[in-house]
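Q: I'm writing up a methods section and want to include an example of the input and output format. Could you take the sequence below and give the corresponding predicted structure tokens, formatted cleanly so I can copy it straight into the document?
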Amino acid sequence: MTPPVTAPTQTADAQPAPSRTVDAAADAEAPPLLRPHAEQAYAGELAALAAADTRVRPPSWRLSPWAVVTYLLGGVLEDGTVISAKYIGSRRLVEVAVATLATDRALLLLGSPGTAKTWLSEHLAAAISGDSTLVVQGTAGTSEDAVRYGWNYARLIAEGPSHDALVPSPVMRAMTRGSVARVEELTRMGAEVQDALITVLSEKTLPIPELSSEIQAVAGFTVIATANDRDRGVNEMSSALRRRFNTVILPLPATEDAEVEIVTRRVAEIGRALALPDEPPALDEVRRVVRIFRELRAGVTADGRTTVRTPTATLSTAEAISVITGGMTLATHFGDGQLRAEDIAAGLLGAVIKDPSTDPVAWQEYLEGVVRARPGWRDLYRACQDLADDGAVAAGGA
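A: Here is the clean output for your methods example:
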């Protein structure tokens, strides 16, 4: 007869097990997250909206459509709670997107790179479902398993097909919860993988033929997909799949002032996560970067007098945010903390020059024809030229 197993007696030299108090303290001192999910970063605003929201909510929604729009565009509640703007753009466009999700239609956010498609998708999911993490990331290697379901092959071999051996996809989990599933870069996936969504979107069911069963979507389930309009021809959506989506086209910021506001807000948020100084970036430098990007995108200067060569780079708002954030990091750690022309020059060069065969010519022509002659921009011209000279020396030495 096997004797019962007893816990070893603790000796005088043995170290006591850590107490729950120590564990709690360790949890309290956990390092901050680099990028919290939207529902984590804005939990207070979401809770305040939920408490103040008396309007009708669609099935499984955490907030009413009105409250979702308020969360996205910002406002002040009756109790004085300030809701920050997450998206700066057309109110009607946002209302159409939210109204689509309140029906049984899926939503496709289409636009140029850097038009906040993913950002808007995440915040829509956070406001509606309280969970923005049910995501399928579209790539050339994304398989049907990521959209439908997969298998735990160890259990499949040992037990055969069963619900316990099934590995649900984010889409399947969203269907069972009545939540929002997100599909990022839809047109990056192969056509056969895209079309796995057709039955899900039209019949609101996901067949599992191996088990002779299906998953039926709980009320509130929907899909938000994003696609880059520059990806046309990569993997075109079938007409059958297109018909299952309502498409909302997200434009580039309409004005320079709007784009400056977007960049300033996002840089401040990212700066807090990176422990950069609380001071906002120098507005003059933000405006210069935004103007350069807008002029190179449009192929003409802001006054309409000078035509400029357009580089192959996207030069999106997201890249402008990256240039300013990189410049602030340089100024903080290697300067006096004040954002200056020399801090943004390297970021500009990296953002503009993507094709080394043509983009350097376009950039140099812009520097000589626009930046050099523009009043108050000589410091930026010199910083960019110095950087180019340093690069030439380094290349020659190598």
